[in-house]
Amino acid sequence: MIENNQNQSETSRDQMLSGSAWMTAGSIFSRFLGAVYIIPWGIWFGQYFFRANALYGLGYNIYSFFLIAAIAGIPSAIAKQVAHYNALNEYGVGVRLYKRGLVLAVATGVICALILYFGAPLIDGGNPNVIPVLHSLAWAILIIPTMSLTRGYFQGYQQMAPSAISQFIEQLARVAYMLITAFIMMRLLHGSWVNAVSQSTFAAFVGAVAGLATLGVYYLRRREDFQYLVQNSNNEIHVEAKQLYQEIISQAVPFIVLGAGITIFMLIDQFTFFKIMRMATDYNYATLSDLYAMFAVNSNKLIMITISLASALAITAVPMLSEALTRGDDEEIRKQNSNVLALFMFVMIPAALGMAAIAGPLNRVFYGTNQQALGANILTFSSIISIPMGMFVVISAVMQGLSQNRRAVKFFAIGTAVKFVLQWPCTYFLGSFGPLLSTGIGLTVANWLILRYLNRHFGFEKNMLDIGFRKITKYSLLMYVAALLTVYGLNFVVQLVGNPLGRVISLIVTLAAVAVGGLIYIYLALKSRIADMILGPRSDKLRRLLNIQ
Fold first, then answer.
1. Per the confidence metrics, is the pTM higher than 0.85?
2. Residue 114 lies in a domain
3. Which residues cross the membrane (predicted)?
């Protein structure tokens, strides 16, 4: 029995690592594309770059909220419920769930797209330039819910590759359309920068079409496998259509709130920052728009690359925890909870500190030298705040996987209340750093409540997590110092020979610091065997490959 439990634990860890690897790769490549496009895009917008980026962010934050409402948490709910029925060998019920969910996805997509399109003048925040941006984004909401639902169906089968690859194709098509239209409108036609931004946001629709087409190809290739599983199901459970809809909706509503968690915090910033700063300063709108772009768009675009690591873990964890809960395997739940947290720490802490170390040259690479010092400092602070943001994404998903949806929403509501209370004083006295600080504190409170509940009712392998946290933190700090010294050293050499710190030089400095810091962290993690707790037998292969004793 013990051996079986160990084998089950190893299998679960392998599934989580494999699924996380696919989702992480898809998320990172997508986020990287979603960040690196800003270099040529910003060059082509010229003097309008910061204003265009701020407008893009103002529209996208509102769109993100409507998109989450349109998706309605259905993909994650479908993934969880499909995994639940698959664990019972009732694959036919999962197929019916998908079809019923498809009806809901199309309906919510149409309704939310219409509300966003015709309601744009009411939610533009007093900025008429936001209206055409929202109009262009409404088209994407028609398609994305169906695409996301199909991804959730694949994830319910523990098949993460289709989701990851379609995510990358979606982003590739989106970025290609953005860059082509920006170049034509701003460089060839010398047109309106507002219209160019509207075309850049319409790219979300183009990307969605490409992503959905990719999923369709995957489904056609695996259709026979799905049909075989359905034909060989137990077929002992019959669920009425009404009950299927009830299951989807009851599971989906909490996913809406929690899935929109970080977006809700961003909307709080969007609708309060300008008002508070007008009270605290005499800055004009253009200056405030630049400051808003620095913390809400520029730095956010980069830290979302690291937060995507947490999102990958979250997507993988939900169906696996649902299966363990269905089996009533308390020990497996405890081990999986511990594995999720350990993997999160192993990846997120060094990623966040690493980005903080290279914030200066990284900010120059993406956003040039305009207000470089302030932009770099904001990115450094944002990188630290990305840790509680990423943790919330992961552990709220764990709560959903364990059917603790209402409690997770309650804890998030408390964190949101803390954010509201702190928003005014933090922003008034700290400017662009204030919204980030209130977000960090609010999410830390929500995280503490969730972790306390999970520990009391499901438990963790505390010794493993304690040792892991101390060692990972120590190695991450050593990596941070090494990367920071590399940045300062190379900057000193470059300035000594009289070269300006432009984009190309900053890119070289960034890559050198990443290489130094990354190698140090990997070496220490493998040498100390702390990587074994996360990666299992794969660590031995890496040690042999790198000749580490």
1. no
2. yes
3. 21-40, 60-79, 100-120, 132-154, 175-196, 202-220, 248-268, 302-321, 341-362, 374-399, 411-430, 436-454, 475-498, 504-526
Q: How many domains does the chain have?
A: 1
Give DSSP secondary structure letters for 396-463: HHHHHHTT-HHHHHHHHHHHHHHHHHHHHHHHHHHTTHHHHHHHHHHHHHHHHHHHHHHHHHT---HH
- Tell me the helix, strand and coil percentages in the chain, rounded to 5: 90, 0, 10
Two tokens, residue 168: 């990358």
What is d(CA 419, CA 413) in angstroms, rounded to the nearest whole number?
Answer: 10
Q: State pLDDT tens for residues 478-499.
A: 999 999 999 999 999 988 887 7
Helices (H) and strands (E) in the chain, counts: 21, 0
Is 444 among the domain residues? no
Domain extent at residue 69:
37-259
pLDDT for residue 17 is more than 70: no
| 193-231 helix and 91-119 helix, angle to the nearest 10 degrees | 160
Q: Which segment, 3-12, 68-77, 145-154, 384-393, is predicted with the most confidence on average?
A: 384-393
Does the residue 47 lie in any domain?
yes
- Residues 83-88: what's their mean pLDDT? 74
